[in-house]
Specification:
Elements (H helix, E strand, L loop, with lengths): L1 H22 L11 H4 L7 H19 L4 H19 L14 H4 L1 H24 L5 H25 L4
Helix pairs in contact: 1-3, 3-4, 4-6, 6-7
Protein name: Rod shape-determining protein MreD
Keywords: Membrane, Transmembrane, Transmembrane helix
Length: about 160
């Protein structure tokens, strides 16, 4: 259990640093911070996941100077996570206490899982940030944000390959 806490703390800090670096990209937003929520262990108490997501989102809000925007998006992802896990549950079920990574559940499963939740995250942020979704230009920016975020998340999985 101690190694699980240590691994998630390291992931917490690493993803904040990466998100801070990605904040410097001027033309488009790239979000990798939701990976922390996505990789929390299966079977973790849902209230704990929501609380961690809120705290994590607030820490991202401090970097972006957006009080509550990313905290609400992180909580929205954490709230949708159990539903997505239930929809994508493998036949044998999940191994409790294991992180839902490509290492534990396969690359295809992870891409589906992270795509659904990142799409939800992107829609949440764009709608709250821009207060509308019905401009062709805004939809293109939204799609680019989603695609680049997913690319970085998949690269993160292959580079760091978290096992816990």
């Amino acid at each position: 259990m101690t190694s699980l806490i240590r691994a998630n703390f390291i992931r917490f800090v690493l993803l904040i640093i990466i998100q801070f670096i990605l904040k410097g990209v001027d033309s488009i937003d790239i979000y990798i911070y939701p990976v922390f929520i996505l990789l929390l262990p299966v079977g973790m108490i849902e209230g704990g996941v929501l609380f961690l997501a809120f705290i994590y989102g607030l820490s991202i809000d401090m970097f972006y100077n957006t009080p509550g925007l990313f905290a609400s998006a992180a909580v929205a992802v954490a709230a949708a996570r159990p539903l997505v896990l239930a929809i994508l549950e493998p036949r044998g079920g999940y191994e409790q206490g294991k992180a839902p990574t490509k290492y534990n559940l396969g690359t295809r499963w992870f891409v589906q899982y992270s795509s659904i939740l990142m799409l939800w995250h992107t829609i949440w942020v764009v709608v709250l940030e821009q207060a509308s979704l019905f401009s062709v230009f805004k939809v293109l920016i939204w799609l680019m944000t989603f695609a680049l975020s997913m690319l970085i998340i998949i690269l993160y999985q292959f580079l760091f390959n978290p096992k816990e």
